[in-house]
Automatic annotation (TrEMBL):
NCBIfam families: PRK12391.1, trpB_rel. Its cofactor is pyridoxal 5'-phosphate. The lineage of its organism: Bacteria, Pseudomonadati, Pseudomonadota, Gammaproteobacteria, Oceanospirillales. The beta subunit is responsible for the synthesis of L-tryptophan from indole and L-serine. InterPro entries: Trp_synth_b-like, Trp_synth_b_CS, Trp_synth_beta/beta-like, TrpB-like_PALP, TrpB-like_PALP_sf. Belongs to the TrpB family. This is Tryptophan synthase beta chain.
């Protein structure tokens, strides 16, 4: 094996199709239900929110979907992204494990999110949409959609979870630089926001509330559509370019991962890396351990219930079967804002139910310790969200050391933390605390799950 550190694909080898895990699941997923009738949704039910092409991608069972030439041209601004061997970290850990990471922080917005933002903006522009509304937690998604909207001449209105809006002012600045409007949520612009503020004027916000606000505005205007940065099937589809590139790059490295790791909030960066590998496994390829890592303060996969639930707090969205803590659950304001969501993507949830993946939860101080250790050896400062994947990779490498196993670990470093430095300042100053999971509040929220006859 060579001493190469970085593996770059030629742009001529950039995947021309997205991969769809739906084609290879051994059991079908539960249908998405209409919030009113509780019957399986039809394409027309989703038309107020999404253009026809995205609705078709949401529902398709085809294994591959062609990537439009205009989207590929924009992808080439930063794709293929590098696969990097973390040799210095391996040496520091004195582990026989080989650690690789797929680095998505090279995109203009600094994360994996433009992979779907560009696609969604393209399809909306093709359909004549004038404005997109969306939510964002940490701001990675809002920044990415703002970037994509600027390329296709779309207005973008972003509802950012209030606690993250206050924690991350430079994400707001980036969104505004790309031409988007950024609004702290809950806000007074929507019925959903006003109802929340009437009960609690100091509400910290949640992704569920921000989704409600964005969906409400999109449903009211014919020239406006809604864009979602995670959770839904078409988002996972677009993110599959990460894992498809990684498959080719691992071949270049002459190696093959035994363990795949990604952080999970809604599931997009995890699915983006993992699903192409999992698809190969389901088609008869080798088995691998796959770890989905989430925050202990919002443990959707490890503590949530697999049930039908709304994707938003105001119950405007369709019902999907997923791991959930209840749509009214508000996670505490820890710094990994992109992972503060009450539910998990239905495809990721389905994979867990089938026993195809494992789930693990970490508290935030341990994740920041791992992120700092990683930065001091590999030079990249991870975003708080993907620090969870970094910690899991380090833990697995140390396990390999204890057991004397030279396994290969691959994780998705889904973004850099350059706009999250206040979180690192709090960590170094001893102000960063592990936030507790409010099990009692989750039980109250779960008691309100929709009852299906």
């Amino acid at each position: 094996m060579s001493d190469t550190t970085q593996y770059f694909l030629e742009q001529s080898r950039l995947p021309r199709q997205w991969y769809n895990i739906m084609a290879d699941f051994p059991e079908p997923m539960a249908p998405v239900l209409h919030p009113g009738t509780r019957q399986p949704v039809a394409p027309s039910d989703l038309a107020p929110l999404f253009p026809d092409t995205l609705i078709a991608q949401e529902m398709t069972a085809e294994r591959y979907v062609e990537i439009p030439a205009a989207v590929l041209d924009i992808y080439k601004m930063w794709r293929p992204s590098p696969l990097i061997r973390a040799r210095r970290l391996e040496k520091a850990l004195d582990t026989p494990a080989r650690i690789y990471f797929k680095y998505e922080g090279v995109s203009p917005a600094g994360s994996h999110k433009p992979n779907t933002a560009v696609a969604q903006a393209y399809y909306n522009a093709e359909a004549g949409t004038r404005r997109l509304t969306t939510e964002t937690g940490a701001g990675q998604w809002g920044s990415s959609l703002a970037f994509a909207g600027s390329l296709f001449g779309l207005e973008v209105q972003v509802f950012q979870v209030k606690v993250s809006y206050q924690q991350k002012p430079y994400r707001q600045a980036l969104m505004r630089t790309y031409g988007a409007e950024c609004i702290p949520s809950p806000s007074n612009l929507t019925n959903a926001g006003r109802a929340i503020l009437a009960e609690n004027p100091d509400h910290p916000g949640s992704l569920g509330i921000a989704i409600s606000e964005a969906v409400e505005l999109a449903a009211q205007a014919d020239d406006t559509k809604y864009a979602l940065g995670s959770v839904l099937n078409h988002v996972m589809l677009h993110q599959s370019i990460i894992g498809q590139e990684a498959l080719l790059q691992m071949e270049m490295a002459g190696d093959d991962p035994d363990i795949l790791i990604g952080c999970t909030g809604g599931g997009s960066n995890f699915a983006g890396l993992v699903f192409p590998f999992l698809g190969e496994q389901l088609r008869g390829g080798r088995s691998r351990r796959i770890l989905a890592v989430e925050p202990a303060a919002c443990p959707t996969l490890t503590q949530g219930r697999f049930a039908y639930d709304f994707g938003d707090t105001a119950h405007l969205t369709p019902l999907t079967k997923m791991h959930t803590l209840g749509s009214s659950f508000t996670p505490p304001g820890f710094h990994a804002g992109g992972l503060r969501y009450h539910g998990m993507g239905p495809q990721v949830s389905h994979a867990l139910q089938l026993g195809l993946i494992e789930a693990r939860a970490y508290a935030q101080t341990g994740c920041f310790e791992a992120a700092v250790q990683f930065a001091r050896h590999e030079g990249i400062v991870p975003a708080p969200e993907c620090s969870h994947a970094v910690k899991a990779a380090i833990d697995e490498a140390l396990r390999c050391k204890e057991e004397g196993q030279g396994q290969t670990i691959l994780f998705n470093l889904s973004g850099h933390g350059h706009f999250d430095m206040q979180a690192y300042i709090d960590f170094f100053d001893g102000k960063l605390e592990d936030r507790e999971y409010d099990a009692a509040a989750a039980e109250v929220a779960l008691a309100q799950l929709p009852q299906l006859g």
